[in-house]
Design goal:
This protein is mainly α. It is about 45% helix and about 10% strand. A 3-stranded antiparallel β-sheet has the order 2-1-3. It binds manganese (II) ion.
Length: about 210
């Protein structure tokens, strides 16, 4: 579909991988106001989640890659080739950019066109897809991420623990949901179900459509 998208699926791949003079990744400004996802995701959550958690993963990635053969690689290559602490932090950087990129308060509220067609083809209906993705998020024990991945006409849901990422398994991601407690604790405390309900309200399906290939 969109041939200009990087093979990691991140629309802002180029910007995310632009480094400063000391070869460090830097935190990109958020593409929307911190309060623009309210009432579904609070300004406070965005401020901490994007401004603090993501910033810390970037900082750790920079420290761990410095002086290693990974130093000049883009994030998606670090993810595929590294392990341990560097993998965990680099994957968390990618995962969070991928997550926040898909949100927009005034975005396209329903998938359309080829994306809708593939969701219906693979899951029966958009509603059935949402139910299955939601259930994966509810049943993922502890911390992790739920992903929608694409392989041609085939779409698949993957629930992965901690920082794990489909790129590591050479799968192409379209959508992700963070189910680490820090993603929702300030807003819905222990209620992950309420967080997931809110998550669906802020997805901009136009972004997911642009990531398709
Ligand atoms: Mn997170």
């Amino acid at each position: 579909m969109n041939k200009d998208v990087c093979n990691c699926g991140l629309l802002a791949c180029k910007e995310v991988n632009t480094k400063d003079q000391e070869n460090r990744f830097t935190l990109l400004p958020l593409a929307y106001a911190e309060n623009s996802l309210e009432p579904y995701i609070s300004e406070k959550t965005v401020r901490f989640h994007y401004g603090k958690h993501l910033a810390a993963y970037i900082d750790n990635t920079n420290k761990l890659k410095a002086g290693t053969p990974f130093d000049d690689l883009p994030l998606h290559e670090i993810i595929v080739k590294s392990s341990g602490g560097l993998f965990n932090n680099a994957a968390q950087v990618f995962n969070h950019y991928f997550y926040f990129e898909a949100f927009h308060q005034t975005g396209l509220r329903m998938p359309a066109g080829k994306l809708l067609h593939l969701l219906e083809k693979n899951f029966g209906s958009f509603e059935q897809f949402k139910e299955k993705f939601t259930l994966s998020g509810m049943t993922l024990f502890g911390s992790g991420w739920v992903w929608l991945v694409q392989d041609g006409e085939k779409l698949e849901i993957m629930a992965l623990p901690n920082a794990e990422n489909p790129l590591k398994e050479h799968k192409y991601p379209l959508l992700t949901m963070d189910v680490w407690e820090h993603a929702y604790y300030l807003d819905t405390q222990n209620a992950r179900a309420k967080y997931i309900e809110n998550f669906w309200q802020v997805i901009d399906w136009k972004v997911i459509e642009k990531r398709m290939r």
